[in-house]
Amino acid sequence: MIDFTAAIFDLDGTLLDSMPLWLNCAERYISSLGLEPEKDLGKKLFSMNMKEGADYLKKNYNLKFSEQEITDGVNQVIANAYRDEVQFKYGAEDFLQKLCDSGIKIALCTNTDREIFTPALARLNAQKYFDFIFTTSEMGMSKSQPETFFKVCREMGVSAEESWIFEDSLYALQTASHAGIKSCAIYDKTSQDAMTESDIKELKEISSLYCKNYKEAKKYFFGK
User: Does the residue 27 lie in any domain?
Assistant: First the structure.
């Protein structure tokens, strides 16, 4: 068993199988308007921010709504899916329970706004696993800043040296590496499909551990 005190988890693509939703939310929105979304619309919008995406939808689908109304509509699609559909990734809940049973402090640190993901955690009865829940928007910080993870550790009352970060995104794992915090990269198909081969290679190289699923992680951390 690995000797550690705290675990800091990302949410989307790490604990929840929600990345396909983020990829396809615009397609769902366009379909809800009775229109036919173009092929690979999600891939075209995946690297855009919400304002850029709303502008693209408005122009390419001749929508009469304002950009803010389009953004609100897409956000409602996302919120509904979190409330009704999004599930744990394979083995994630069992791994969280094992951490709890072992007395490991658990924090959630996510870029997703609290009002979006809270209904999903409530439906999945998952809030019980977390001692702390942080959102980067409420912190006014970014996971590209090592100080974000240092602050989470301080709030948890643990040192960075005795903590592990669980993530699926390259940039957050880069931050963990720069901060000298041990990290476990969790495979997510949607996230890695958006990466280049060199990105995936770097992700594996800079992470302390790379796991295809939580069954692998459980074996590494607990030996079974």
Answer: yes
Residue 79 lies in a domain: yes
> What is the pLDDT, as a whole number, of residue 49?
79
Question: Helices 50-60 and 67-84 meet at what angle, rounded to 10?
Answer: 110
Asked whether the predicted pLDDT for residue 2 surpasses 80, the reply is no
Residues 151 and 139: their CA atoms lie apart, in Å, by 9
pLDDT at position 1, please? 65
Name the residue with tokens 């409420």.
Answer: 138
45 domain-assigned: yes
Final residue of a structural domain among 37, 52, 84: 84
Whole-prediction pTM: 0.92
- Give residue 224's pLDDT: 66
Would 1 be classed as within a structural domain? no
Statement to judge: residues 107 and 198 lie in one domain: yes
